[in-house]
Design brief:
404 residues, alpha+beta, five-stranded mixed sheet, four-stranded mixed sheet, 15 helices, 37% helix, globular
Length: 404
């Protein structure tokens, strides 16, 4: 008989797997940051900096305030233990995990290197670029001078050089050797990764199984689509890997009431080592690209939280704000808040704040110390609710003591 897991326990299992509910360390150092990345496996990268760049936020949400230069040392320094690849989206991963994505690199070589395509039609630029990287890499795209280095075409106005660099990166011939002022530095893969990594190879089936295993650990409990989305793996190979892990006893089939599609239960699995906490104590602001919410279907199914980021929505049509952050209190997503770090004024501005269906006064009281900690972490001296801030939670924050 398939075990039944209550929706409330499923939420707690999911959050515990992501590192919530544990006592925060007294001091956050490199060891704690490495441990966090090992737990969730990757940090998604996004360039939006109106409040804070996304990859810094999962550590703050789980560990509390920390020195961001420590994370920079792990992720931006070419000598550090991490590099980048398209794991979920663009993400920091451990260098030794590079071979697990060779199957994706092989696919990209077929996709972008096809005869008659852009890459094939720009061989002269590509060959010149290879020689330039071999002689002078690592280099940022802006440091490479070439006649083709003008912004044209559909790839966000990238130059031919930038486009070629990104294609070579996707194909696994070029790797990211850290960042300077958030700009990627490109180098030939053998100049970034040690031979001990490059000598490792996985069959596609084995790599996919290992990635699904890691996804299951990071989820604690989930559906096939949940596990597949973590590394953007297609449904059929993901399900085959799940069946293998189930046969091995690592994944346990379960049923969660309410996890349904078209009135039918959605098959789900519990990782055998998943913690089943009786309660979760947490207060955190989540990045829009935090693993807890990045698969929007799961956020709705597990937390009843309908979430869409509105960066690309015209301002008059936004409901919740440009960069609204889900608010996690204990085991529930209770609202969302749109923040801006006004560094010139030294103020963390609340531009909008909304509750879901909870007690707004209680939420505001619990948010007060969290917002103060957030402002201090950002090097800002005060928190203020912006004049005209939208949302039912905004005036309650003023009442609770946030400046307005």
């Amino acid at each position: 008989m398939v075990e039944q897991v209550s929706p409330a326990l499923a939420r707690r299992i999911a959050l515990a797997a992501q590192g919530f509910g544990r006592p925060r360390p007294a001091t956050v150092g490199v060891r704690q940051l490495n441990g966090l990345i090992d737990r969730i496996n990757l940090l998604q990268i996004d360039s939006v900096n109106v409040f804070e760049r996304s990859h810094y936020l999962p550590a703050f949400a789980r560990l509390g305030a920390y020195d961001k230069t420590l994370l920079d040392r792990l992720t931006f320094d070419a000598r550090g233990p991490h590099t980048e690849y398209w794991a979920h989206e663009a993400a920091f991963i451990r260098k030794e995990d590079w071979p697990l994505f060779e199957w994706r690199m092989r696919f990209n070589r077929g996709r972008y290197g096809a005869e008659g395509g852009w890459f094939d039609s720009n061989r002269e630029t590509v060959e010149w670029l290879r020689r330039e990287l071999a002689a002078n890499g690592p280099l940022a795209a802006s440091e490479i001078e070439h006649d083709a280095n003008t912004r044209t075409g559909p790839w966000w106005g990238w130059s031919a050089v930038k486009r070629a660099l990104e294609m070579l990166f996707l194909m696994g011939e070029v790797a990211i050797a850290g960042r300077t002022r958030f700009q990627r530095r490109y180098a030939l893969v053998e100049d970034v990764l040690p031979a001990s990594v490059l000598d490792v190879s996985f069959e596609t089936e084995d790599a996919v199984r290992e990635l699904i295993r890691r996804s299951a650990v990071a989820h604690g409990i989930g559906t096939a689509k949940d596990f597949a989305d973590y590394y953007r793996i297609k449904g059929a190979p993901a399900l085959a890997a799940i069946r293998d892990l189930e046969d091995a006893g690592e994944l346990i089939p379960v049923r969660v009431p309410g996890w349904e599609s078209a009135g039918k239960p959605i098959p789900a699995w519990l990782h055998r080592d998943a913690r089943r906490p009786r309660r979760i104590e947490a207060a955190a602001l989540l990045s829009p690209f935090d693993p807890v919410v990045w698969y929007r279907d799961r956020a709705l199914r597990v937390f009843g939280f309908h979430y869409r980021i509105e960066i690309y929505t015209p301002a008059p049509q936004r409901v919740y704000g440009y960069y609204s952050l889900p608010i996690l209190l204990d085991d529930a997503l209770v609202g969302r808040i749109d923040l801006k770090s006004d560094r010139q004024a030294g103020v963390l501005r609340v531009q909008s704040a909304w509750t879901e269906d909870g007690d707004g006064g209680r939420i505001a009281e619990r948010l007060l110390p969290l917002l103060a900690e957030t402002a201090a972490w950002q090097g800002l001296g005060a928190v203020e609710v912006a004049p005209g801030a939208r949302g039912d939670l905004a005036p309650l924050l003023v009442t609770a003591g946030v400046g307005g």
